[in-house]
Request: fold
Amino acid sequence: MYQTSWKQYLTPNGTKHRIRVKFGWKKIEDNKQSYWSVVAETQYIYHGKWHDKSYGTLNNLISKSFQELEKSLKWCGCFEDTGPIHYEKNAKYWWNMIKNNVERRIGNPDPLESFKRVVIFGAIPDEQLPTDSQLTTWLYTRLPKLVKIMHKDCNESIELMKEKVILIK
Reply:
């Protein structure tokens, strides 16, 4: 894992904030493989002291503050060797929501956008959405390409940030 230095920014109302990001392949003790992680923490200044504000996958703020990480943000939570976590199950869940035209309730995500997000649709150039009969084959045919592109994007982010980070455990 890598960690950036603090980078200051102003909010629209002029409040001074700062952000730092931890990113890289993260290993959890009992997991067999590492997963890609990009996590930010932010603080704000109040009465001359820094106070914690937020922590998590703050993608919009991360991409504004550290544009070099933008390509790798979509890979958060993807396993190093096998790609998106629960790839087939998540994809089929959202596909069934689309296919069955499930009524959306206020606050529920759009099924098509959710499907595209969990399969990281668009990462492979010129790909098309599958038909119902093609879904399972489509998922597994594209997976090796997806993992290869993930490694390229994540390694590129590491390379671009190399001079701006420290290596942490």
Remarks:
- Residues 1-169 form one domain.
- The two ends are 6 Å apart (CA to CA).
- The first helix runs from residue 59 to 65.
